[in-house]
Amino acid sequence: xxxxxxxxxxxxxxxxxxxxxxxxxxxxxxxxxxxxxxxxxxxxxxxxxxxxxxxxxxxxxxxxxxxxxxxxxxxxxxxxxxxxxxxxxxxxxxxxxxxxxxxxxxxxxxxxxxxxxxxxxxxxxxxxxxxxxxxxxxxxxxxxxxxxxxxxxxxxxxxxxxxxxxxxxxxxxxxxxxxxxxxxxxxxxxxxxxxxxxxxxxxxxxxxxxxxxxxxxxxxxxxxxxxxxxxxxxxxxxxxxxxxxxxxxxxxxxxxxxxxxxxxxxxxxxxxxxxxxxxxxxxxxxxxxxxx
Length: 292
Fold this sequence. Notes:
This protein is of the alpha/beta class.
């Protein structure tokens, strides 16, 4: 591929970013911001926006686009102090909107759902008014695991398709496109009023028809929020970028997504599943307020 387009140029980490990184390290919490080498790290940390990553820093799957460490043997046990550490970080940083995600842990009986529930409970213990969004793995589509998370009442539950149907098996060999849709479908079956969210990366070689097809698939399972962003390969060893999507195309996808019935859409090169999470949620909240 050619050089990155000009809109991907990032500021060097400033004092606030470095201070936030040190604080999170001292609090013994992982973030997807650091582990996944997110391009938005500097601007998010400057705004006190953090996405916590629980269940350790090693994933049991091997998606070709992901920078998170992959398991090469036994995976470390779940840290019993992790929920308290996240809650303490939330309290010390004064966070009002908290995003929690995780690596995939197929080695755990419930896929780590119980740990999600413990973290949510611990954060609500800081302040029940805190809004919590979780980005979950598929838990192998086990409904009992999904119920563990739903029953502790997060505000938003996200699960990412990551890519289109045609490319899914190639990029996510241990995941399953239909299973991901089933996860989102099951969340609505269990709790119809739960707000659901998903994300698709672009620039992996998908066609416009592929993207629109995946949008339709998500709306068929009543997914409420969609984010679309440009894929950036974390290293030369990861799946290569096939295309840099033009900003005008991102705008076109946003209009199509809204016409299909998504309640809130973030579609831009630097958009990520948890980027501007509170702002994206507020779009829905604002619409609800306008309809009363």
